Amino acid sequence: MSDIRITKVTAIETAPQGSNLIVVRIDTNQPGLYGYGCATFTQRHKAVVTAIEEYMDQLLRGRDALAVNDAWSVMMNSSYWRNGPVLNNAISGCDMALWDIAGKVANMPVWQLWGGKVRQAVPVYRHAGGDDFGRVDETVVAFLEQGYQYLRIQYGGYGGRQSFLNTPAGSPDGAYFDAKKYLRSVPALFEHVRAKFGDEIELCHDVHERLDPVDAVWLAKHLEQYRPFFLEDALAPEQGAWFKTIREACATPLAMGELFNNPMEWQPLVENRWIDFIRCHVSQIGGVTPARKLAAHCEPFGVKTAWHGPGDVSPIGHMANVHLDLTTLNFGIQEWCGMETDPRVREVFDGCAEIRDGFAWANDKPGWGIEVDLEKAKKYPCDSAQPRWLLARLPDGTSVKA
Ligand code: MG
Hints:
Elements: E1 6-14, E2 21-28, E3 34-38, H1 45-60, H2 68-77, H3 85-106, H4 110-113, E4 122-130, H5 133-145, E5 150-155, E6 175-176, H6 179-197, E7 202-206, H7 213-223, E8 230-232, H8 242-249, E9 254-256, H9 263-271, E10 277-278, H10 288-298, E11 304-305, H11 315-327, E12 334-335, H12 343-348, E13 349-350, E14 354-356, E15 359-361, E16 371-372, H13 374-378, E17 392-393
Parallel strand pairs: 4-5, 4-12, 5-7, 6-17, 7-8, 8-9, 9-10, 10-11
Antiparallel strand pairs: 1-2, 2-3, 4-15, 13-16, 14-15
Helix pairs in contact: 1-3, 2-3, 6-7, 7-8
The protein binds magnesium ion (MG).
């Protein structure tokens, strides 16, 4: 047992790029010793802030700051009802903050504390897309010129390009899309990009769980000829059993897990070898402590990691992803949104992971190696308004998954 005690757990709310980010700060009884973790659930951020300040603070105050495993178990189990997105994110913020403190006490980066690097830097993929093929080409060229070797290609937003839709008069406002039009557009996009840019580039695509199961089978079969690096979230979590059908129909690599909260969701997919990449949102599953266990669980089944890395993960969370990637033998690829190049982000977060030649690099500072400017964070307040793109509807007006 160490003498280092937790004295306070606070939530920092900031939105330097417009997306709500939640960062946990844990202070200790040692002057200048504190840690940061990512608790970002951007669409319901106030619920997470309440969970941190009303529950995690009282649970953790006075505890040994270096007893990370015990703290994680207490946070997860003391609510009795567990594994929901709000509490998992609150737990993640505290879990990562305690690992940050452990690294600072050891005077080591967290990757060193976890046994050292198995690769010097982490290959990442970027999002290339546009509302017409010409715009897709422009973004592909720009990323290739910057040295990226892996790209996710999308035509229009999730669900494809929104062309004319025949919708009943009086239908509610929302983000309408036609799943069948989208379904036809994706093989055309892959055919275009392969014809234009050749076979060397690695290509991903994100379905964002928007297809009916049998349509997802059709899409995976038709993309196989273009050799995708992976097809992402082809199904909603509740349709996981359909991955068996896709697996038996074709050899398109499958990535899944962005919406997962709970080990019961990934166990059958991993243990039956129905997927190739597990790509959970690390704060959504409760932090780096369960993420390391998940990666270890996947390794003997031949499943690789591809942790979620969008704009609604804080730079602390992106750095935690990189430290996981650096130390995981069965790492596959890392999604990268590029927020570290935004001056507003750098104003609040100092020490972000850097990209060079298509690889993400961590720094060698203790812990996560990131400092947060608490005053600058206040310059960019969060907003509880509902994002419109999540109000997805089919052409007949039915509200569906986004
Ligand atoms: Mg995705």
